Amino acid sequence: MSPQPQAAVGAPLSRVDGRLKVTGKATYAAEHDIKGVVHAVIVDSTIGRGRITGIDTRAALAQPGVIKVISHLNAPRLAYRGTENDWPDSKQLRIFQDDKVLFRGQPVAVVVATTLEAAEHAAHLVKVRYDAEKTSTDMATAPAGEPVNYARGDADKAYESAAVQVDATYQQARAHHNAMEPHATIARWDGDQLTLWDKTQWPMGTQKDVAAVFGIPNDSVRVISPFVGGGFGNAIRAWPHIAIAAVAARETGRPVKLVLSRRQLYFGVGYRPSYEYRVRLGSDRRGRVSAMVQHLKSETSTYENFIEGVLNTGQMVYNAPHVRQDHRTVPLDVNTPIWMRGPGYATAAFAIESAMDELAHELDIDPIELRRHNEPEEDPSNGLPFSTRRLRECYTVGAREFGWNRRDPKPRSTRDGDWLIGTGMAVGTYDVIRNGAQARVRLNADGTALIQSATSDMGPGTYTSQSQVAADALGLTMRNVTFQLGDSTMPTAPPHGGSQTMINIGSAVQDGCDKVRKQAIKLAVEDKDSPLYGVDAEDIVVRAGRLHVSDNPARGETYRQLLTRNNRTHLEVLGSWTPGQARHSMYTYGAIFAEVAVDASLGLVRVRRMLGVFDAGRIISPKLADSQALGGMVGGIGAALLEHTVTDHRDGRIVNANLADYMVPVNADIPDLRGIFLDGGEDLEADPIGVKGLGEIVYIGVAPAIANAVFHATGRRVRELPITAEALL
Ligand code: MOS
C-alpha cells in the first residue's frame, strides 16, 4: 500500500487558535455570553472542623439585587448517586446537605444576585455561627491509614546485607496548580436539561459527576468547554462549585455564573498532596543496587482517599531485584487533593533520584554511570519487555549536549565570585495511558473536513496537533481541516490529562480519517467517470485534497470533484481506537540536566541553564512539544525552588492563598532551557500513531536535577522541596 504523504505531522506549526487567543476571542468558561445570567458567590467556612449552628441571612437578603441565599438550611436534598468516575474514590463533598464542616474554606452557603458586586458584598454579610472542633491538618502528627504494599524479593534482608547503604527521608510540600484561568462555571437549566459552560479537562467526566449529584441521566447534562486557560490536572474532576452553580441555577430559575476567586482556588479545588518519602538503597561497591525499601505518606481528606500512581517508578526505573514499598495516606481536615503535572511520578523522582545521587556520592561514581549500572533489560516489576526505552540514549545525548564530562565531581569545587556553581542530573519516567477514544470525521464536498471529539485543550495545543494528524490522514492541507473539542455531546474522549490526549484521541482521529480517505478512494476506483476508475485502491494517495495514483500524480481528481459528481454532500465516519491487552511495558523517559548557582552567604539558588532529553515516542507537533518542554521545566523550577502551600495547623487556614505569597517562577527566574526529543522513537506497541505522550515527562525529574545540582554546588543535601534559602544557610 502506498503510504500517505506526511506534510503536517512533524512540521513545526504554530497554533491554529493562536490568533483567537492573543486577540481575546477565545472564549473561556466565565466569558460565555449567556442571556439573563446572574452571579453566585460562595461563603466559605471560617473554621477547620465542626458544625454550623446558625446562619443569619437577613442582612444579605436585604441588599439590593440579592435573589437568594442557599445553605444546608434550605438547599434541596441531592441524590449523590455513585458516580461512574470512580477515581479518585469519588464520594464527593456533599454540598449543603448537612451542618458538618470538614475543612476550612468548605462552601457553607452561596449568594445569588443580579450583579457580581451585590453577590460579593452580600456574601460578606452572611453571618455563620459555628461549633468549632480542633483541626487536624498536619501530616507529621496525624495517624495514617492502612498501607498499599508492593514487594519483590526480600528487600529488608538485601538492604541489611548490602555493602553500601543510603537511608534518607524526603519531603515534598503541598502545591497548587495556579492556572491562569480560575475555575468557573455557568449553569443553565432548560426544563430537566442542564447545560454547563465549565472549565474542564474532561467534559464527559464533569457531565457524569454532575449527573450523579442530581441523580439524572448523563444525557441530561451537557458540558461545553472550548478553551481552558491552564489546568495541570486540576480541571479533570468536577469540584463542588460546579454542583453549587447548578443548584443555584435550579433554585433561582436563572442561569448562574460562579467564578472562584484566586483565594478560593486554594481550597475550592484540589492540589498536589504533600509527601514524606523515605528511601533506603542497598548497593554493592560497584554501584549495583540490590535493594530498595520505600515508605511513603501523603495527605488526603477525611471524606475521600486520594491515592495516585506514586509507587510505579520505584518498581521499574532501576533493576533492583529486591524492592519493598508501602504507601499510607493520612486523612486530614482538608479538601481532597488531585493529580498535578507528573502526578506521583514527579514526587517519586524527587525521592529516588535524590537518593541515587546520594549513593553516587557515597560510591564516588559518576551519577550517570551509576544509573547505567542499574538499567534493566526488561521491566523488573512484571517481566514484560519494554516497548521502547531509550534512557541510555537520553544519557548519551544529554551528557554530550550539556557538557557533563567537563564536570569536576567534587561538591563545592567551582566558584564564580560569590556564587557556588554546581551541576546535577536526574531521570524521569511516566506512564503511557491507553484508554481509547472516538472521533467523528466528516469530509465535506467542498474539500474541507470537520473532526470532533469530546476532549479538551488546556494549553498543549490539541486543536493544532489533532488537525495535523487529520490533515495527513485525509490528505488535506491544515487550512481545510477543523478540529473541534470541548463538548460532552461529541464522541467519547478520556480525560485530557496524564499525557494521554495524543495517544488516544490522535489514534481515534487517525482511524476515522483513514476510513474516510479509503471510502473516498473506493468511491473513485468504482466510479466509471473518475480518472481513477479501475485503479488498485492501494496505489492511490491523497495530497492537498486531490486523490491520485501514487507514482503518477497526473492521474487523479479532487475530493470536491469526486463527491460533487457523486451527489454526496459529505462522507462521515466515527473513528475509534480501543487499546489491546498490553504485552509490553510502556513508559516515557527523560534525563534532565541542570546547572545552578548558589549564593554562599545568602542561600539564594539561581538555575543557570537546563537541558531535558526525552524519549516520548513519535513527535507529532515539534513546536508544541518544544513549548511543553519549556513549560514543564519552568514548572519543575517552581517545584524545586518556590512552590509551597503553607497551612496554619492551628485552624487549617492556608496562609498564602494568593499569587503574591505563593511563589511561582517569573521570567527573571528562568534561564536558557532546552528540550530535545529523541528522533525516530515511533512506538507502535503503544498505539497506532506511535506516540507515548509528553506533557508529564517534560516536568518529571526537573526538581531532583536541581536539588542534585544544589548539592554539587554547596555540599549541602537538601531533602525538602521547595529548597529555600533558610535550608541552605
Ligand atoms: Mo495533568 S496531572 O496531566 O492534567
UniProtKB/TrEMBL annotation:
- Entry's SUPFAM superfamilies? CO dehydrogenase molybdoprotein N-domain-like, Molybdenum cofactor-binding domain
Q: Which residues form the signal peptide?
A: none
Q: Which organism is it from?
A: Streptomyces coeruleorubidus
Residues of the Aldehyde oxidase/xanthine dehydrogenase a/b hammerhead domain: 23-134
Q: Which Pfam families match?
A: Ald_Xan_dh_C, MoCoBD_1, MoCoBD_2
What protein am I looking at? Xanthine dehydrogenase family protein molybdopterin-binding subunit
- Sample GO molecular function, one term: oxidoreductase activity
